[in-house]
Write a structure and sequence with these properties.
Number of domains: 1
Strand content: under 5%
Radius of gyration: 22 Å
Order of helices and strands: HHHEEHHHHHHHHHHHHHHHHH
Structural class: mainly alpha
Helix content: over 70%
Protein backbone atom coordinates (compact mmCIF):
# COMPACT_ATOMS: atom_id res chain seq x y z
CA UNK A 1 0.00 0.00 0.00
CA UNK A 2 2.87 2.35 0.85
CA UNK A 3 4.63 1.65 -2.48
CA UNK A 4 1.45 2.37 -4.44
CA UNK A 5 1.13 5.72 -2.68
CA UNK A 6 4.75 6.59 -3.48
CA UNK A 7 4.29 5.73 -7.16
CA UNK A 8 1.08 7.76 -7.30
CA UNK A 9 2.91 10.76 -5.84
CA UNK A 10 5.75 10.36 -8.33
CA UNK A 11 3.27 10.11 -11.20
CA UNK A 12 2.02 13.60 -10.35
CA UNK A 13 5.58 14.92 -10.67
CA UNK A 14 6.51 13.25 -13.97
CA UNK A 15 7.27 16.52 -15.86
CA UNK A 16 9.57 17.69 -13.06
CA UNK A 17 11.30 14.31 -12.87
CA UNK A 18 11.88 14.26 -16.64
CA UNK A 19 13.51 17.70 -16.69
CA UNK A 20 15.55 17.02 -13.55
CA UNK A 21 16.80 13.68 -14.91
CA UNK A 22 17.73 15.29 -18.23
CA UNK A 23 19.65 18.03 -16.39
CA UNK A 24 21.63 15.57 -14.25
CA UNK A 25 22.44 13.26 -17.16
CA UNK A 26 23.42 16.21 -19.37
CA UNK A 27 25.69 17.54 -16.63
CA UNK A 28 27.54 14.21 -16.49
CA UNK A 29 27.77 13.87 -20.27
CA UNK A 30 28.92 17.46 -20.70
CA UNK A 31 31.69 16.93 -18.18
CA UNK A 32 33.08 13.84 -19.92
CA UNK A 33 32.46 14.64 -23.59
CA UNK A 34 33.82 18.15 -24.04
CA UNK A 35 33.63 18.23 -27.84
CA UNK A 36 29.96 17.29 -27.95
CA UNK A 37 28.98 19.38 -24.92
CA UNK A 38 27.78 22.30 -27.09
CA UNK A 39 24.93 20.08 -28.30
CA UNK A 40 23.73 19.23 -24.80
CA UNK A 41 20.78 21.59 -25.25
CA UNK A 42 19.27 19.21 -27.84
CA UNK A 43 18.46 16.27 -25.48
CA UNK A 44 17.25 18.75 -22.87
CA UNK A 45 14.94 20.27 -25.49
CA UNK A 46 13.65 16.77 -26.30
CA UNK A 47 13.03 16.16 -22.59
CA UNK A 48 11.00 19.38 -22.42
CA UNK A 49 8.81 18.09 -25.27
CA UNK A 50 8.31 14.84 -23.34
CA UNK A 51 7.46 16.80 -20.19
CA UNK A 52 4.88 18.84 -22.11
CA UNK A 53 3.33 15.62 -23.45
CA UNK A 54 3.03 13.99 -20.02
CA UNK A 55 1.63 17.20 -18.54
CA UNK A 56 -1.03 17.49 -21.24
CA UNK A 57 -2.08 13.84 -20.94
CA UNK A 58 -3.13 14.50 -17.33
CA UNK A 59 -5.21 17.55 -18.19
CA UNK A 60 -8.61 17.51 -16.52
CA UNK A 61 -7.53 15.41 -13.54
CA UNK A 62 -7.67 16.67 -9.97
CA UNK A 63 -5.14 14.94 -7.73
CA UNK A 64 -2.98 15.63 -4.70
CA UNK A 65 0.39 14.26 -3.65
CA UNK A 66 2.65 14.26 -0.60
CA UNK A 67 -0.26 14.79 1.81
CA UNK A 68 -1.77 17.46 -0.43
CA UNK A 69 1.45 19.48 -0.45
CA UNK A 70 1.44 19.16 -4.24
CA UNK A 71 -1.67 19.77 -6.37
CA UNK A 72 -2.32 18.43 -9.85
CA UNK A 73 -5.29 19.98 -11.66
CA UNK A 74 -6.17 21.89 -14.80
CA UNK A 75 -4.73 25.11 -13.40
CA UNK A 76 -1.33 23.73 -12.43
CA UNK A 77 -1.07 21.75 -15.66
CA UNK A 78 -1.78 24.79 -17.85
CA UNK A 79 0.78 26.94 -16.03
CA UNK A 80 3.35 24.15 -16.25
CA UNK A 81 2.78 23.82 -20.00
CA UNK A 82 3.24 27.58 -20.47
CA UNK A 83 6.55 27.47 -18.57
CA UNK A 84 7.73 24.40 -20.49
CA UNK A 85 6.86 25.99 -23.84
CA UNK A 86 8.84 29.09 -22.83
CA UNK A 87 11.71 26.81 -21.78
CA UNK A 88 11.61 24.98 -25.12
CA UNK A 89 11.56 28.29 -27.02
CA UNK A 90 14.58 29.47 -25.01
CA UNK A 91 16.52 26.28 -25.76
CA UNK A 92 15.77 26.55 -29.49
CA UNK A 93 17.02 30.14 -29.36
CA UNK A 94 20.26 29.15 -27.64
CA UNK A 95 22.36 28.74 -30.83
CA UNK A 96 22.22 32.50 -31.43
CA UNK A 97 23.80 33.43 -28.09
CA UNK A 98 27.02 35.36 -28.52
CA UNK A 99 29.35 34.61 -25.65
CA UNK A 100 33.11 34.70 -25.31
CA UNK A 101 33.40 30.99 -26.03
CA UNK A 102 33.17 29.71 -29.61
CA UNK A 103 30.78 26.99 -28.49
CA UNK A 104 27.71 26.97 -26.26
CA UNK A 105 28.76 26.07 -22.68
CA UNK A 106 26.80 23.01 -21.60
CA UNK A 107 26.27 24.56 -18.17
CA UNK A 108 23.74 27.02 -19.62
CA UNK A 109 21.02 24.51 -20.64
CA UNK A 110 21.68 22.48 -17.48
CA UNK A 111 21.22 25.50 -15.20
CA UNK A 112 18.13 26.53 -17.18
CA UNK A 113 16.65 23.06 -16.73
CA UNK A 114 17.26 23.09 -12.96
CA UNK A 115 15.65 26.52 -12.73
CA UNK A 116 12.63 25.24 -14.66
CA UNK A 117 12.26 22.33 -12.23
CA UNK A 118 11.94 24.88 -9.44
CA UNK A 119 9.35 26.82 -11.44
CA UNK A 120 7.26 23.71 -12.10
CA UNK A 121 7.24 22.77 -8.42
CA UNK A 122 6.34 26.34 -7.42
CA UNK A 123 3.29 26.24 -9.67
CA UNK A 124 1.79 23.15 -8.07
CA UNK A 125 2.98 23.66 -4.47
CA UNK A 126 0.31 23.77 -1.76
CA UNK A 127 2.68 24.42 1.10
CA UNK A 128 4.74 27.46 2.10
CA UNK A 129 7.85 25.41 2.80
CA UNK A 130 7.77 23.61 -0.55
CA UNK A 131 7.29 26.96 -2.28
CA UNK A 132 10.43 28.26 -0.58
CA UNK A 133 12.52 25.26 -1.64
CA UNK A 134 11.23 25.57 -5.21
CA UNK A 135 11.81 29.33 -5.15
CA UNK A 136 15.47 28.86 -4.28
CA UNK A 137 15.86 26.13 -6.88
CA UNK A 138 14.46 28.54 -9.47
CA UNK A 139 16.51 31.53 -8.34
CA UNK A 140 20.02 30.17 -7.69
CA UNK A 141 20.67 29.05 -11.31
CA UNK A 142 19.34 32.39 -12.55
CA UNK A 143 21.83 34.27 -10.33
CA UNK A 144 24.66 32.31 -11.95
CA UNK A 145 23.31 32.69 -15.50
CA UNK A 146 22.94 36.45 -15.07
CA UNK A 147 26.72 36.74 -14.57
CA UNK A 148 27.61 34.34 -17.39
CA UNK A 149 28.84 36.97 -19.86
CA UNK A 150 32.57 37.33 -19.25
CA UNK A 151 32.98 40.17 -21.74
CA UNK A 152 30.97 42.78 -19.86
CA UNK A 153 31.35 44.00 -16.29
CA UNK A 154 27.66 44.96 -16.39
CA UNK A 155 26.82 41.26 -16.27
CA UNK A 156 28.73 40.80 -13.01
CA UNK A 157 27.12 43.91 -11.56
CA UNK A 158 23.67 42.68 -12.60
CA UNK A 159 24.28 39.26 -11.06
CA UNK A 160 25.42 40.77 -7.76
CA UNK A 161 22.40 43.07 -7.55
CA UNK A 162 20.07 40.23 -8.49
CA UNK A 163 21.60 37.95 -5.86
CA UNK A 164 21.58 40.50 -3.03
CA UNK A 165 18.00 41.61 -3.57
CA UNK A 166 16.92 38.03 -4.24
CA UNK A 167 18.39 36.98 -0.89
CA UNK A 168 16.49 39.84 0.75
CA UNK A 169 13.21 38.68 -0.81
CA UNK A 170 13.88 35.12 0.40
CA UNK A 171 14.41 36.45 3.92
CA UNK A 172 11.12 38.33 3.76
CA UNK A 173 9.36 35.18 2.60
CA UNK A 174 10.88 33.00 5.33
CA UNK A 175 10.08 35.57 8.02
CA UNK A 176 6.46 35.78 6.88
CA UNK A 177 6.18 31.99 6.66
CA UNK A 178 7.61 31.52 10.15
CA UNK A 179 5.05 33.95 11.58
CA UNK A 180 2.30 32.09 9.74
CA UNK A 181 3.56 28.79 11.12
CA UNK A 182 3.54 30.27 14.62
CA UNK A 183 -0.20 30.93 14.28
CA UNK A 184 -1.34 27.84 12.40
CA UNK A 185 1.28 25.24 13.43
CA UNK A 186 1.36 24.20 9.77
CA UNK A 187 2.62 25.55 6.45
CA UNK A 188 0.00 23.73 4.38
CA UNK A 189 -2.45 25.99 2.53
CA UNK A 190 -5.44 23.89 3.54
CA UNK A 191 -4.58 24.18 7.23
CA UNK A 192 -3.98 27.94 6.93
CA UNK A 193 -7.39 28.42 5.33
CA UNK A 194 -9.08 26.28 7.98
CA UNK A 195 -7.34 28.23 10.75
CA UNK A 196 -8.73 31.54 9.53
CA UNK A 197 -12.26 30.12 9.17
CA UNK A 198 -12.13 28.61 12.66
CA UNK A 199 -10.94 31.90 14.18
CA UNK A 200 -13.71 33.88 12.51
CA UNK A 201 -16.35 31.33 13.52
CA UNK A 202 -15.14 30.87 17.09
CA UNK A 203 -17.37 33.66 18.34
CA UNK A 204 -20.76 34.95 17.31
CA UNK A 205 -19.33 38.48 17.36
CA UNK A 206 -17.16 39.27 14.37
CA UNK A 207 -13.54 39.56 15.48
CA UNK A 208 -10.67 41.29 13.74
CA UNK A 209 -7.92 39.37 11.97
CA UNK A 210 -4.75 39.36 14.13
CA UNK A 211 -2.49 42.15 12.89
CA UNK A 212 0.59 39.92 13.01
CA UNK A 213 -1.21 37.45 10.75
CA UNK A 214 -1.66 40.23 8.20
CA UNK A 215 1.99 41.26 8.56
CA UNK A 216 2.99 37.70 7.69
CA UNK A 217 0.85 37.84 4.56
CA UNK A 218 2.38 41.20 3.56
CA UNK A 219 5.91 39.81 3.97
CA UNK A 220 5.09 36.78 1.81
CA UNK A 221 3.51 38.93 -0.88
CA UNK A 222 6.46 41.34 -0.83
CA UNK A 223 8.84 38.50 -1.67
CA UNK A 224 6.88 37.65 -4.81
CA UNK A 225 6.36 41.28 -5.76
CA UNK A 226 10.13 41.33 -6.05
CA UNK A 227 10.15 38.23 -8.25
CA UNK A 228 7.52 39.61 -10.64
CA UNK A 229 9.19 43.07 -10.80
CA UNK A 230 6.24 44.88 -9.26
CA UNK A 231 6.72 48.42 -7.98
CA UNK A 232 7.93 49.37 -5.41
CA UNK A 233 10.10 46.22 -5.55
CA UNK A 234 11.22 46.79 -9.15
CA UNK A 235 14.58 48.50 -8.55
CA UNK A 236 16.66 45.53 -9.72
CA UNK A 237 14.84 45.00 -13.01
CA UNK A 238 16.37 47.62 -15.39
CA UNK A 239 19.96 46.93 -14.29
CA UNK A 240 19.60 43.15 -14.45
CA UNK A 241 17.78 43.22 -17.78
CA UNK A 242 20.51 45.40 -19.30
CA UNK A 243 23.50 43.66 -17.73
CA UNK A 244 22.51 40.01 -18.13
CA UNK A 245 23.10 38.19 -21.42
CA UNK A 246 20.08 38.89 -23.61
CA UNK A 247 19.22 35.22 -23.84
CA UNK A 248 18.97 35.04 -20.03
CA UNK A 249 17.02 38.30 -19.91
CA UNK A 250 14.46 36.82 -22.31
CA UNK A 251 14.07 33.67 -20.22
CA UNK A 252 13.94 35.65 -16.97
CA UNK A 253 11.31 37.99 -18.40
CA UNK A 254 9.05 35.15 -19.53
CA UNK A 255 9.24 31.88 -17.60
CA UNK A 256 10.14 33.14 -14.12
CA UNK A 257 7.38 35.75 -14.23
CA UNK A 258 4.75 33.12 -15.04
CA UNK A 259 5.93 30.91 -12.16
CA UNK A 260 5.84 33.78 -9.65
CA UNK A 261 2.43 34.97 -10.86
CA UNK A 262 1.14 31.42 -10.44
CA UNK A 263 2.29 31.37 -6.83
CA UNK A 264 0.56 34.69 -6.16
CA UNK A 265 -2.66 33.24 -7.56
CA UNK A 266 -2.24 30.12 -5.41
CA UNK A 267 -1.62 32.08 -2.23
CA UNK A 268 -4.31 34.73 -2.64
CA UNK A 269 -7.12 32.57 -3.97
CA UNK A 270 -6.60 29.47 -1.83
CA UNK A 271 -5.65 30.03 1.84
CA UNK A 272 -6.24 33.80 1.89
CA UNK A 273 -9.33 34.26 -0.26
CA UNK A 274 -11.36 35.20 2.83
CA UNK A 275 -8.90 38.03 3.52
CA UNK A 276 -9.60 39.70 0.19
CA UNK A 277 -10.64 42.98 1.83
CA UNK A 278 -7.12 43.26 3.26
CA UNK A 279 -4.90 42.06 0.41
CA UNK A 280 -6.94 43.68 -2.37
CA UNK A 281 -5.79 47.13 -1.23
CA UNK A 282 -2.15 46.02 -1.39
CA UNK A 283 -2.51 44.56 -4.87
CA UNK A 284 -4.29 47.66 -6.18
CA UNK A 285 -1.56 49.94 -4.79
CA UNK A 286 1.21 47.85 -6.36
CA UNK A 287 -0.70 47.70 -9.65
CA UNK A 288 -1.06 51.48 -9.82
CA UNK A 289 2.59 52.03 -8.83
CA UNK A 290 3.76 49.53 -11.45
CA UNK A 291 1.64 51.15 -14.16
CA UNK A 292 3.00 54.61 -13.42
CA UNK A 293 6.64 53.60 -13.04
CA UNK A 294 6.51 51.29 -16.05
CA UNK A 295 4.96 53.89 -18.34
CA UNK A 296 6.88 56.96 -17.18
CA UNK A 297 10.22 55.25 -16.53
CA UNK A 298 10.48 53.86 -20.04
CA UNK A 299 10.20 57.27 -21.70
CA UNK A 300 13.71 58.43 -20.79
CA UNK A 301 15.50 55.15 -21.57
CA UNK A 302 18.11 55.02 -24.34
CA UNK A 303 18.96 51.32 -24.04
CA UNK A 304 16.48 48.92 -25.64
CA UNK A 305 16.71 46.27 -22.92
CA UNK A 306 16.22 48.84 -20.16
CA UNK A 307 13.20 50.16 -22.02
CA UNK A 308 11.74 46.65 -22.20
CA UNK A 309 12.46 46.26 -18.47
CA UNK A 310 10.21 49.22 -17.71
CA UNK A 311 7.71 47.80 -20.17
CA UNK A 312 7.74 44.58 -18.12
CA UNK A 313 6.96 46.55 -14.96
CA UNK A 314 3.98 48.11 -16.75
CA UNK A 315 2.73 44.71 -17.93
CA UNK A 316 3.00 43.39 -14.37
CA UNK A 317 0.82 46.32 -13.35
CA UNK A 318 -1.88 45.05 -15.70
CA UNK A 319 -1.55 41.52 -14.35
CA UNK A 320 -1.92 42.82 -10.79
CA UNK A 321 -5.01 44.75 -11.90
CA UNK A 322 -6.62 41.47 -12.89
CA UNK A 323 -5.32 39.77 -9.75
CA UNK A 324 -6.99 42.39 -7.55
CA UNK A 325 -10.49 41.71 -8.90
CA UNK A 326 -11.06 38.78 -6.54
CA UNK A 327 -13.49 37.00 -8.86
CA UNK A 328 -13.35 34.33 -11.55
CA UNK A 329 -13.00 36.94 -14.30
CA UNK A 330 -9.91 38.33 -12.59
CA UNK A 331 -8.24 34.92 -12.45
CA UNK A 332 -9.04 34.36 -16.12
CA UNK A 333 -7.58 37.77 -16.98
CA UNK A 334 -4.42 37.04 -14.98
CA UNK A 335 -3.81 33.68 -16.65
CA UNK A 336 -4.69 35.02 -20.09
CA UNK A 337 -2.46 38.09 -19.82
CA UNK A 338 0.45 36.04 -18.46
CA UNK A 339 0.17 33.68 -21.44
CA UNK A 340 0.13 36.51 -23.97
CA UNK A 341 2.96 38.27 -22.16
CA UNK A 342 5.27 35.26 -22.60
CA UNK A 343 4.72 35.37 -26.36
CA UNK A 344 5.19 39.16 -26.53
CA UNK A 345 8.35 38.95 -24.44
CA UNK A 346 9.95 36.37 -26.74
CA UNK A 347 9.01 38.39 -29.81
CA UNK A 348 10.60 41.52 -28.33
CA UNK A 349 13.89 39.96 -27.20
CA UNK A 350 14.61 37.61 -30.12
CA UNK A 351 15.34 40.51 -32.54
CA UNK A 352 17.77 41.94 -29.95
CA UNK A 353 19.51 38.56 -29.86
CA UNK A 354 19.74 38.64 -33.65
CA UNK A 355 21.11 42.20 -33.66
CA UNK A 356 23.83 41.23 -31.20
CA UNK A 357 25.42 38.98 -33.83
CA UNK A 358 26.61 42.28 -35.35
CA UNK A 359 29.53 43.57 -33.24
CA UNK A 360 28.55 47.16 -34.11
CA UNK A 361 25.29 46.93 -32.15
CA UNK A 362 25.60 47.81 -28.44
CA UNK A 363 21.98 47.82 -27.34
CA UNK A 364 21.11 51.48 -27.81
CA UNK A 365 17.73 52.30 -29.32
CA UNK A 366 19.22 54.80 -31.77
CA UNK A 367 21.46 52.06 -33.19
CA UNK A 368 18.54 50.24 -34.81
CA UNK A 369 18.03 53.09 -37.29
CA UNK A 370 18.38 51.69 -40.77
CA UNK A 371 17.24 48.19 -39.79
CA UNK A 372 14.15 48.51 -42.00
CA UNK A 373 16.37 49.04 -45.04
CA UNK A 374 19.04 46.41 -44.43
CA UNK A 375 16.81 43.71 -42.85
CA UNK A 376 13.15 44.50 -43.58
CA UNK A 377 11.81 41.15 -42.30
CA UNK A 378 13.53 41.54 -38.93
CA UNK A 379 12.22 45.10 -38.79
CA UNK A 380 8.69 43.78 -39.29
CA UNK A 381 9.21 41.43 -36.33
CA UNK A 382 10.27 44.36 -34.15
CA UNK A 383 7.26 46.31 -35.44
CA UNK A 384 4.86 43.52 -34.45
CA UNK A 385 6.50 43.16 -31.03
CA UNK A 386 6.28 46.88 -30.25
CA UNK A 387 2.68 47.22 -31.43
CA UNK A 388 1.60 44.14 -29.49
CA UNK A 389 3.29 45.34 -26.29
CA UNK A 390 1.72 48.76 -26.76
CA UNK A 391 -1.72 47.11 -26.89
CA UNK A 392 -2.63 48.26 -30.39
CA UNK A 393 -5.20 46.12 -32.26
CA UNK A 394 -5.36 43.66 -33.90
CA UNK A 395 -2.31 42.22 -32.15
CA UNK A 396 -2.49 39.81 -29.20
CA UNK A 397 -1.39 42.40 -26.65
CA UNK A 398 -4.54 44.43 -27.27
CA UNK A 399 -6.80 41.49 -26.40
CA UNK A 400 -4.80 40.79 -23.23
CA UNK A 401 -5.26 44.38 -22.03
CA UNK A 402 -8.92 44.38 -23.08
CA UNK A 403 -9.60 41.19 -21.09
CA UNK A 404 -8.06 42.71 -17.95
CA UNK A 405 -9.86 46.05 -18.34
CA UNK A 406 -13.17 44.24 -18.89
CA UNK A 407 -12.78 42.22 -15.67
CA UNK A 408 -11.84 45.36 -13.71
CA UNK A 409 -14.77 47.40 -15.06
CA UNK A 410 -17.12 44.48 -14.43
CA UNK A 411 -16.31 44.75 -10.70
CA UNK A 412 -16.85 48.51 -10.66
CA UNK A 413 -13.16 49.46 -10.26
CA UNK A 414 -13.50 52.31 -12.74
CA UNK A 415 -10.64 54.43 -11.37
CA UNK A 416 -8.23 51.53 -11.72
CA UNK A 417 -9.38 50.93 -15.29
CA UNK A 418 -8.88 54.60 -16.19
CA UNK A 419 -5.36 54.53 -14.74
CA UNK A 420 -4.63 51.40 -16.80
CA UNK A 421 -5.78 53.09 -20.01
CA UNK A 422 -3.77 56.24 -19.29
CA UNK A 423 -0.64 54.21 -18.53
CA UNK A 424 -1.10 52.33 -21.81
CA UNK A 425 -1.35 55.58 -23.75
CA UNK A 426 1.84 56.91 -22.15
CA UNK A 427 3.75 53.67 -22.78
CA UNK A 428 2.77 53.82 -26.44
CA UNK A 429 5.24 56.70 -26.79
CA UNK A 430 8.39 54.66 -26.19
CA UNK A 431 7.14 51.63 -28.10
CA UNK A 432 6.25 53.74 -31.15
CA UNK A 433 9.54 55.63 -30.82
CA UNK A 434 11.39 52.39 -31.58
CA UNK A 435 9.34 51.98 -34.78
CA UNK A 436 9.97 55.62 -35.76
CA UNK A 437 13.76 55.28 -35.33
CA UNK A 438 13.82 51.97 -37.19
CA UNK A 439 11.83 53.13 -40.21
CA UNK A 440 12.24 56.89 -40.50
CA UNK A 441 15.61 57.97 -39.05
CA UNK A 442 18.36 58.49 -41.59
CA UNK A 443 21.48 56.37 -41.24
CA UNK A 444 24.25 54.79 -43.26
CA UNK A 445 24.58 51.86 -40.90
CA UNK A 446 23.97 48.36 -42.28
CA UNK A 447 23.68 45.24 -40.15
CA UNK A 448 25.46 41.94 -40.55
CA UNK A 449 23.04 39.48 -38.98
CA UNK A 450 23.12 35.68 -38.98
CA UNK A 451 20.07 33.90 -37.58
CA UNK A 452 20.10 30.09 -37.11
CA UNK A 453 17.15 28.09 -38.43
CA UNK A 454 15.87 27.12 -34.96
CA UNK A 455 15.72 30.79 -33.97
CA UNK A 456 13.91 31.67 -37.20
CA UNK A 457 11.37 28.99 -36.34
CA UNK A 458 10.73 30.41 -32.85
CA UNK A 459 10.44 33.94 -34.25
CA UNK A 460 7.96 32.76 -36.89
CA UNK A 461 5.79 30.94 -34.34
CA UNK A 462 5.56 33.83 -31.86
CA UNK A 463 5.05 36.38 -34.66
CA UNK A 464 2.20 34.36 -36.18
CA UNK A 465 0.63 34.01 -32.74
CA UNK A 466 0.73 37.77 -32.17
CA UNK A 467 -0.75 38.47 -35.60
CA UNK A 468 -3.17 35.59 -35.93
CA UNK A 469 -4.58 35.42 -32.41
CA UNK A 470 -7.56 37.51 -33.54
CA UNK A 471 -8.60 34.66 -35.87
CA UNK A 472 -8.85 31.98 -33.14
CA UNK A 473 -9.02 33.63 -29.70
CA UNK A 474 -11.42 31.17 -28.09
CA UNK A 475 -9.12 28.17 -27.35
CA UNK A 476 -6.77 30.11 -25.05
CA UNK A 477 -9.64 31.86 -23.30
CA UNK A 478 -11.36 28.51 -22.80
CA UNK A 479 -8.20 27.01 -21.29
CA UNK A 480 -7.80 30.03 -19.02
CA UNK A 481 -11.42 29.73 -17.88
CA UNK A 482 -11.11 26.02 -17.17
CA UNK A 483 -7.87 26.60 -15.23
CA UNK A 484 -9.45 29.44 -13.23
CA UNK A 485 -12.47 27.32 -12.34
CA UNK A 486 -10.14 24.53 -11.25
CA UNK A 487 -8.25 26.94 -8.96
CA UNK A 488 -11.27 28.37 -7.14
CA UNK A 489 -12.86 24.94 -6.73
CA UNK A 490 -10.00 23.68 -4.57
Amino acid sequence: MMSETVFEDLAVLIPELIIASAAIISLILGSYFKKASQYIFIPIAISSVAAIYFAITGYGQDLGALDDSILYNSYTILMKVIILIAFLGALLSLPITKLKEAVIPFEIPVLLALSVVGMLIMVCANDLLIIYLALELMSLPLYVLTTFSQKHSRSHEAGLKFFMLGALSSCLYLFGSSIMYGFVASTNFNMIGEYYVSVMNSNEIEIAVPIVFLIALVLILSAFFFKVSSAPFHMWTPDVYQGAPTFITMFLSAASKVASISVLLNILYMPFIDLIDQWQQIIVFCAIASLFIGSLGGIMQKNLKRMLAYGTIGHIGFILMALSVGELSGIIGTIFYATIYVVMSFLAFLPILALETDDKYHGEIKEISGLAKSHPLLAVIVLIAMLSMAGIPPFAGFFAKFCVLFSVIEQGLYSLAIIGVLATVVSCYYYLRVIKIMYFDNTNHTFTINIPFSVKFVILVVALFNIGYVIMPEPILALARQAAESLISI
